[in-house]
Structures are given as structure tokens and as C-alpha cells.
Amino acid sequence: MTDIDPQDLADRYIAVWVEPDAELRRKAIQELWAEGGAHILQPPQEIREVAAKLGFDRPTLEAHGHEEIELRVTRSYADFVAPGEFTFRPAGDAVRLRNVVKLGWRMVPVGGGDPVGGGLDVLVLDRDGRIAEDYMFPGA
Q1: Residue 7: helix, strand or coil by DSSP?
Q2: Nearest in space to 33 (alpha carbons), one of 59, 82, 91, 72
Q3: pTM (2 decimals)?
Q4: Which of 21, 28, 77, 138 has the fewest C-beta atoms under 10 angstroms from its C-beta?
Q5: Are the C-beta atoms of residues 86 and 110 closer than 8 Å to each other?
Q6: Distance (Å, whole) CA 86 – CA 80
Q7: How far, in Å, CA of 22 to CA of 73, rounded?
């Protein structure tokens, strides 16, 4: 596998989620994720509670391939970043163990201040150093 700096990867990963230009976002997704890569999200607690009532004790939300990942990232951007109140920042704690990178992120007010949210991502890289699987744990 290529030599990958985990914090550089984390910075580029977070940059995708805050990129306002759709074409640049699409290009970055294609560079970061493998062709058949996946983004797997642990849903927020309220979704897990509703799913549990329906008999689903381990729900996950998944996007596969560049097109679905782009849709997921674009919707996240539209909901959380585009209104101009918040942005995402890497926590600066990225570490790599073989083909796995763990990174934290924070949702912070655009004007500065304490984080209002955040989470943990675990990225499994393919042989080329691109994201094969992206496990996101908001609130972690």
C-alpha cells in the first residue's frame, strides 16, 4: 500500500464534506473512495429507536459507489454546511494501523466556538490507499 499520512487523509476527507463546489466535491470523492467504496453510517439514536420498534436491532444507513456517496455528501452539505451556521473540522487525532485510519471530526459554528457535535470515522483502505469502507459514528 502507498505511504499515506493519516492526518492528511483526514483533512482531505473532511474537506469533501464542506466543499461548496459540486464539481470539485465529485472529483474529490472519486479520488478518495475506491470505485465500489462504501459509506456506512450508524444512524442517530432516534432512528435506531424507531427501527428497534420495528424489529431491526442493528440498523445501518449505507451508500455504495461514487454516485451514492456523492448524494450522501451533498445532502449532508446542504443540511449542515450550506446554511452558513456550521462547518466540519478534523479533530487532529487521525491514526493509521495498516490499512485502517481512525479519525475524529467536529461540527463547529462558522464564527468559532465550542463544537456542537462530532463523531468518529474508521476508514478501511484498499491497496491503492483509497477508501474501500467508511464507517461513520456520529456523536462518538
Answers
A1: helix
A2: 72
A3: 0.90
A4: 21
A5: yes
A6: 6
A7: 10
- What is the number of helices (H) and of strands (E) in the chain? 4, 7
Secondary structure of the chain: what % helix, strand, coil (to 5)? 35, 35, 30
Element (H, E) at 12: helix 6-18
CA distance 52 to 60: 12
pLDDT at 140 > cutoff 70: no
What residues pair up with 118 in beta bridges, in sequence order? 106
Q: How many CB atoms lie within 10 A of CB 131?
A: 22
DSSP, residue by residue, 49-81: HHHHHTT-SS--EEEEHHHHHHHHHHHHIIIII
Cell numbers placing 110: 462558522
Read off the pLDDT of residues 26-52 as tens digits, 9 standing for 90 and up. 999 999 999 999 999 987 777 778 877
